[in-house]
User: What shape does this take?
Amino acid sequence: MKVAVAMGYKEYVFDLEDALKFIEVLSKAELYKRDYVEGKTTHSITKASGGDEEITTLRVFSDDFYRMACLAGNK
Assistant: This one.
């Protein structure tokens, strides 16, 4: 079974087990932020909170759908 994980404007396709590992690792990550204000750049690293994840959608594909989409994409 395949899963598409949407981050930003792209969706990345993983095996289900890898998608779960990816989400688990991402949940442990810290956030890096770079701001440019009035000619100066500041950098900060903070603990990620529950609302800061970039994953917006998980889409599960059947094996048949995955194979069909690969053919359509000339994979």
Notes: The mean pLDDT is 87.
